[in-house]
Each structure stands twice: as structure tokens, then as C-alpha cells.
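User: Can you predict the 3D structure for this chain?
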Amino acid sequence: MKPTSNIQSSRPLLIDALQYSKPERARFEEWRDGGVGCVHVTLSIWENARETLSVIGEWNRLLEKNSDLIALATSADEIEKIVASGRTAVVYGFQDTSPFEDDIELIEVFYSLGVRIAQLTYNVQNRVASGCWESDDQGVSKFFGRGVIAEMNRVGMLVDVSHCTEKTCFDAIEYSSRPIAISHANPSGFVGTDIELNRRNKSTALLKRLAETSGVVGLSMYPKIMKNGSNCTLDTFLDMASWTVDLVGIDAVGFGTDFYTGWPESEIKWWRAGRWARESAIPIKGFSPWPEWFPSPVAFPNVLAGLEKRGFSAAEIAKIAGENWLRMFREGFQPVSK
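Assistant: Here is the predicted structure, written as C-alpha cells:
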């Protein structure tokens, strides 16, 4: 799919706040061709500390072998420098706090290795908090969970609640001394509940509270959480973007595609069940095809062109494309001053 927008000439900084494709050069070329300046990549879902260290080692080799296309970023300044060099900045992150195990000291250790974002929990209950498949009245654990959030705030690791219960999300906003992220989710008030993973999306009340506390939500093209699934049209996605901006304001909206490709279907079982079950608690229906207007990040210019046609100004498009995330990263990735 070729870009159709004249906006490409001005190239706003484009940040995708969550992808989990199998990492390989073809993906990095897609980022380049789509004008993606920064991608938050997933290192871990259920992996423990030792396993995650190996994944970091693998990514470090990928960065070395593909240094013409990508480079690791650990700050907003580094993101800007990498983008200025014509490459895509990679931000390391976790989709669960499993790599921290039960040791709060590991947060700083992983920070020192470049990790800048961590989701509190992935769908289910863990030591820190409760995931979106659990009862809605379960939130952040009183001791370890609150301690993890405080330590992430201290070292400069952004708190993400994309797969958490509503109560966990509200708790995290209350307990965090810094703005938190919903890196990849959609508004349930727009999408409705007639989708495969309806518990993944976020309520109107939560999104408003997120915006009040300077957080950002990354709107996702993931079919299982979009209205009409794989049949969602670009117009419907743009309707959702406009609806969300009207709800929470231009400063609280970005992109978090949740794009993945390159994995076998068997990988879904690992994502859904991990080590905590033999089968997924939610029936596995296989991979859902990506919508025809977004087969890969190469198509991002068409999304920006759509926003332009909807009447969004260049400044507003720049905020949605990446400036809102960059603002959060600039503050959130820095350790608390002593």
C-alpha cells in the first residue's frame, strides 16, 4: 500500500506505542517505509528475569546488525536524535511485570539495561495487580503493587495499564506520582462490546481520568478490539479517533497499534495461557486478519492523510502521531531528581 498523503513531505514524528511482531529486518524496513520514528517493542509477556535477559541480548544483536535502520532509545532526546538520523528509535518494554519476579530491585536492573515501559499485568492476576480477565473489583496489590509503581516512578520507567482491570487502572493513576500510559487500547464507549476481546478496551470514565492526569491512550488497529473487527474501515477508525479527541482532548491521544506478524498461531497460546494454565481462559480463534487499509506500518501515511481530510490541523496531527507520547517519554523516562 503506497502512501497517499502530501503530509509525508513534512513527516511529523510518528510513535507507535506498542508492537509485538517477530523481530527481523523486514519489520524494520516497514517502519522506515511507513515513516515510523519510534516503536515501543515487547521484550516479555510471561518470561521471567533470566529468560528476559536472553531476549534483551537477542535484541541487542539485532540493533547491532541493523544499525542502518534502528537504534535503541532510552530518552526523548535519543528518540529525536535517532529520528533525525533517518532511523527508527526502539524503546524496550514489558507487557507484564513477570521479569521483576518478586524482587523490587530488578526494576532498576532492567532500567539500567534500557527498559523504559512496563505493563503492570497481562490479562490475569499477578503479584502486582489484576488483569482485565479478572473481576472488575480487583486492583493494585496493597504492598508489592504499590511498591512496584513507586519504584518505577523513581527510576524512570513508565507505568502501562493496557491489559488491566478498570480498578487497576484507576488505582495506578492514584498511586503513581507520574502520568501513566494506556499504550494500546480503544474506547469501549465507541467500540461497544460486540468484539472478541471486549474487556481489553477502556471506559469513558477511565479515559477522562487518564487525560485529567496528563496520560495518553494509544488507539489500536488490532482487529480483536476494533469495531467490526477485521472489517473495520479506515473511516470507522478515523471516527473513533475523532470521538476520542472530542472526549479527552487532543493532548491525550496517540497511536498504539498492537501490530504483530511473523509468529505461528501456536504463539497465541503462549500469549493467552503462559505458564498459568494449559489452555486459554478466553477461546482462541486464531489470528484475525489486519484490516485492508492497515496491512502493516507501511500504511501509516494513509492514516495521517485520513486525519488531515477530517479537518485536523498539522499541529493536531503531529500531537496524535507522536508528540503526545514524546512528551510523556521526556518526563517519564527520567529518574526522580534526588
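The CA atoms of residues 111 and 157 lie 7 Å apart. The chain has one domain: 6-332.
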